């Protein structure tokens, strides 16, 4: 595995790969790799000739009171894991390489970013779109791999690729979970053992909402009520949002109809840790 730290080095590698007629699969990450990332590496190895991963804790997607400085980092461990999972190139730029002094550009994807995660973390998706756009321009991947856990992020990235006629195919892989149902996340490292136990309520709440839907519930407010009731069974939980929406545009109709694809979206605080999760549902 080659480790690259400058944009110039990446450009040379990427152009050599393209000249050799090989395809590139990219997994953009912020590091502190877990099973979810590793499954994306494996998926990229299957889909593309060359697997590129990036590790960059992107400052532009964190709000002023968020955990940018505290975000977990362990480059040595990440490098070993990437190598074990047959990543060919690992791009680890520093913040000045990505955002040199005088950097002025911004990105803004309308509509999709007004709600849920975007509403609660203003500017978050602008930062995500900006860094993903830069990574795509630098690496020029044929495929890029994202986890379904950040569902709204996958919609924003797909919209950006479509609207800006980018030549990268977005592939979304299912969320990887612990046996308890807790979705893998770098932020799980903030949780104590007791909080980890409490955090399983996210999965449990979505399962109960799914049961209600399987039993014929179609009313959005009733489904949301099931989610809220289950989540509140954990003392001290703080709910940012717990809702079901249409999967394609995150709009929130009063009722769902057969064949509609919906997504349950959750963001809650367990102690001081904010966790997100989602479930895709197709109404019968
Ligand atoms: O999902 C993440 O880890 C980040 O939002 C991403 C896509 C790597 C952009 O910084």
Describe what this molecule looks like in 3D:
With 284 residues, this protein is an alpha/beta fold. It folds into two domains: 2-173, HUPs (Rossmann fold), CATH 3.40.50.620; 186-282, 2-Layer Sandwich (Pantoate--beta-alanine Ligase, Chain: A,domain 2), CATH 3.30.1300.10. The protein is 37% helix and 20% strand. The protein has a six-stranded parallel β-sheet, sandwiched between helices. It has a three-stranded antiparallel β-sheet with strand order 7-8-9. The longest helix has 16 residues, at 124-139. It is globular, with a radius of gyration of 19 Å.
Strand order in the largest sheet: 1-4-3-2-5-6
- Rg, nearest Å: 19 Å
Instruction: Report on the biggest sheet.
Output: 6 strands, parallel
Q: Distance between the terminal alpha carbons, to the nearest Å?
A: 47 Å
Present as ligands are:
pantoate
Shape call:
globular
CATH superfamily of the largest domain: HUPs
Helix percentage range: 25-40%
Total DSSP E strands: 9
């Amino acid at each position: 595995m080659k480790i690259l730290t400058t944009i110039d080095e990446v450009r040379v590698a990427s152009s050599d790969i393209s000249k050799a007629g090989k395809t590139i699969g990219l997994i953009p990450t912020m590091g502190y790799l877990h099973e979810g990332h590793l499954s994306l590496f494996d998926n990229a190895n299957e889909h593309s000739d060359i697997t590129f991963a990036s590790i960059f804790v992107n400052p532009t997607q964190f709000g002023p009171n968020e955990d940018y400085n505290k975000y977990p980092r362990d480059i040595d461990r990440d490098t070993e894991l990437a190598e074990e999972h047959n990543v060919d190139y690992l791009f680890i730029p520093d913040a000045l390489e990505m955002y040199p002094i005088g950097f002025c550009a911004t990105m803004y994807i309308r509509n999709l970013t007004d709600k849920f995660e975007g509403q609660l973390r203003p500017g978050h998706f602008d930062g995500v779109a900006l860094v993903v756009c830069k990574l795509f321009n630098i690496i020029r991947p044929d495929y890029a791999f994202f986890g379904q856990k950040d569902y709204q992020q996958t919609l924003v990235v797909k919209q950006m690729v479509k609207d800006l006629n980018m030549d990268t195919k977005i592939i979304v892989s299912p969320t990887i979970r612990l046996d308890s149902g807790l979705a893998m996340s770098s932020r799980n490292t903030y949780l104590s053992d007791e909080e980890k136990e409490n955090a399983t309520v996210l999965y449990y709440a979505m399962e109960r909402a799914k049961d209600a839907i399987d039993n014929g519930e179609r009313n959005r407010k009733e489904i949301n009520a099931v989610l809220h009731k289950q989540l509140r069974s954990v003392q001290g939980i703080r709910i940012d949002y717990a809702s079901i929406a249409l999967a394609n545009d995150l709009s929130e109709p009063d009722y769902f109809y057969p064949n509609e694809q919906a997504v349950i979206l959750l963001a809650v605080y367990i102690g001081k840790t904010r966790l997100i999760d989602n479930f895709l549902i197709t109404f019968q």
